[in-house]
Amino acid sequence: MNERMVDVQRFLEYCFLKQYYIEPPGRAGANSAHLLDVINTYSPEIIIKAGVGSGALLVEMAKTTKSRIVVVDPSISIIRKFIKNYGSVPEIKDISFVAGDFNGFPIDYYAADMIIAIDNISFIESSSAIDEFRRALQFEGILYISTPVLSTADEEGVFDDYMRMLFPLHNEFYMEDELKTVMELNEFNLVKGNTESFSETASEQAAFFGGLYDDRSSECAQFIDSRLGLLASCYGFNNGSFSLPYYSGVFRRVKTDDVYEKR
What we know:
The protein is globular, with a radius of gyration of 18 Å. Strands 3-2-1-4-5-7-6 form a seven-stranded mixed sheet, with helices on both faces. The protein is an alpha/beta fold. The protein is built from eleven helices and seven strands. Helix content is 44%, strand content 23%. Helix 2 runs parallel beside helix 3 (56-64).
């Protein structure tokens, strides 16, 4: 495991402890509704989830689907804590866990009918992870991605600059169309997508990230003041609160013949 992945593991463990940023309670209803609808629509035999996440969504999946669920997570600690926290849930015994990272996905070629990646592609090495997801998926398998995205009017990526101040591991949030293009270039066709907005406060963000990294709240407040007009127009910033776009997309891995025909 490389140094960056060690840092990612540490961050995932912190998220699991705090129940924030990855599958937070404020998005639980939307995440659950969209994901379970996709699972019910395609009835995948084998589902691979990239990360335990907060744990609650994984439990709901186990309770509501007959699919075999395999979870890949870089942190053995998270896996053990999840099993301890939810050990009384009968369906948990049917989940398989694999300790491993997303850039060297420990899943065989074409082993998965569906892969799920929620709230993590903005800080992992997304290009290599998506390559690995494609490798592990059956042809015409489903990749489900949920992630914050930039406002289409934020052409300079101002919100990305803000996030990097708070969160050293942050790479970038794609714009919705950029994400679709990236997926198409990686041999995934869009089936359907949905964008909603969720509210987050600057003070909550600063407190969360300040608990793991250096406290940058003062610097971030100055940055917000300097770009207040854009943040207000693009992200509805008002009284310390952002309205952040959040995209959930269903992508189908194309057949090799389809790729060659397009070329």
